[in-house]
Amino acid sequence: MENEHQPRLRSVVSYVKRGGRMTVGQQRAWEEHWPRLGRTVADLPAGPVDFPAWFGREAPVLLEIGSGMGETTSQLAAAAPELNYLAAEVYDPGLGQLMLRAEKLGVTNLRLMHGDAVVLLAEHVAPGALAGVRLFFPDPWPKKKHHKRRIVQPEFVALVASRLAPGGTFHLATDWEHYAEQMLAVCSAEPALRNRYADEPGGWAPRPPWRPVTKFEQRADVEGRVSHDLIFERI
């Protein structure tokens, strides 16, 4: 049943479930680390995840949606040991690679969720439970006929806002100009959020020095695209 804390799930998903074989190292990471570090969204029991029990401590929880192959995520988690860092991803080899990177960096504050982040937020995260949500370089779906598949839509932003604690942040980044403008418009229209950098030119946030340059940004730079950051705060 729909209510203010259980928004309607979208019927069109924003990702393609890619295949791909795992390397020997990625497979080893799954076998050795997944039972402790990972959970699958579809297998979660009903209700909110008990984050303090899973992480083994009380700490602010930050959710990163779409961790890819984990290079940026592992570095960000390592750089913020005060956070309980949760990464959600649908790509099995990517999660395996993230566990390898985290192992190499000695990261202990990272947990992984395999599956649809929208289902995770709607069904397994309590309202006000998150200190922050990060969405870096989501699939831009550049063709106009595919824009409905972009994850940043009003229903999704309302869902994210409802799961943020007051003062919690929603940080987005993309190198596609039209998508950046859509992100800005949709987030600005959400009454529970305010743009921390509304007074800056265009409303864009300065690129934070702590966010590693991703392969997507490198490619965008080569192709002449400008990356934009947006940081919204839960009112």
TrEMBL record:
Positions contributing to S-adenosyl-L-methionine binding: 64, 89, 116, 139
Residues that bind substrate: 143, 175, 214-217
MF-aspect GO terms: tRNA (guanine(46)-N7)-methyltransferase activity
Pfam families: Methyltransf_4
EC number(s) stated in the UniProt entry for this protein: 2.1.1.33
Keywords, alphabetical: Methyltransferase, S-adenosyl-L-methionine, Transferase, tRNA processing
Broadest EC class assigned to this enzyme: transferase
UniProt xrefs under Gene3D superfamilies: Vaccinia Virus protein VP39
Matching InterPro entries: SAM-dependent_MTases_sf, tRNA_(Gua-N-7)_MeTrfase_Trmb, tRNA_methyltr_TrmB_bact
Pathway per the UniProt entry: tRNA modification; N(7)-methylguanine-tRNA biosynthesis
Catalysed reactions listed for this entry: guanosine(46) in tRNA + S-adenosyl-L-methionine = N(7)-methylguanosine(46) in tRNA + S-adenosyl-L-homocysteine
GO CC annotation, single: tRNA methyltransferase complex
Matches recorded under PROSITE patterns: SAM_MT_TRMB (PS51625)
Entry keyword annotation includes Plastid: no
Family: Belongs to the class I-like SAM-binding methyltransferase superfamily. TrmB family.
Entry function: Catalyzes the formation of N(7)-methylguanine at position 46 (m7G46) in tRNA.
PANTHER family: 3-DEOXY-D-MANNO-OCTULOSONIC-ACID TRANSFERASE/TRNA GUANINE-N 7 - -METHYLTRANSFERASE, PENTACOTRIPEPTIDE-REPEAT REGION OF PRORP DOMAIN-CONTAINING PROTEIN
Protein name per the record: tRNA (guanine-N(7)-)-methyltransferase
Source organism (scientific name): Amycolatopsis panacis
